[in-house]
Amino acid sequence: MAKPENDSLFEAPPMGEQERMVEAILFASADPVSLKELIGRMPHGSDPAEAIVYLRKKYEGRGVHLVKIEDAYAFRTAPDLGFLMQKETVEVRKLSRAAIETLAIVAYHQPVTRAEIEEIRGVSVSRGTIDQLIDMEWVRFGRRRMTPGRPATFVVTQEFLDHFGLENSRDLPGLKELRAAGLLENRPPPGTEVLDDEDDADDDQVEMFEEGTE
After folding, report:
1. What's the half-sphere exposure (Cβ side, CA atoms, 13 Å) at 82?
2. Which of 91, 95, 105, 115 has the fewest CB atoms inside 10 Å of its own CB, making it the most exposed?
3. Measured between alpha carbons, how far is 124 from 10 in angstroms, rounded to an integer?
4. In the chain, what are the domains?
């Protein structure tokens, strides 16, 4: 029995064509694209997840890599060629020590409340510090805690992970390294002057986030 011509309308394109479609979508997008978005934009029956597997192998060793950022994908410059992009980098602002510490605490302890951030830092956190990180789209509100007062929590964003070249927050350096650097001390050592958000402090102990914000 002959196959109805209309059935061809519901057949997925060949995998080679699906690869080209995914490649085109990702190259045209400034932001990472999720599998859900790819499925919604590609012909019925397409399997963008499989196409991505082939594309990632295809771009291994090339000038750009297909990288995963949380549940989304994007083309990014190969890490060893990042120095070539320095002329294209725009310095927007330099984060304060308070903002860098707050960002690090959110990244490593998320979801975390403002009170928990203050307990870890040992000092109060100004609203402006958190607002700055939210304005930069590196920190966002998470789910409220199911505790009295239902305090809001904070988590890092996909934009934060993308900026630092991380697939997810588990790729951050270990807490032991950060504590060894003195950034995540729960309380300041005895006799140490407590700094508030407006004080300038030596920033040689927070290189990981400072280098990424310059």
Report:
1. 8
2. 91
3. 59
4. 9-85 (1.10.10.10), 97-213 (1.10.10.10)
pLDDT digits (tens, 9 = 90+) for 109-125: 889 999 999 998 888 88
pLDDT at 86 (0 to 100): 66
Spans of the chain below 50 pLDDT: 1-8, 89, 183-208, 211
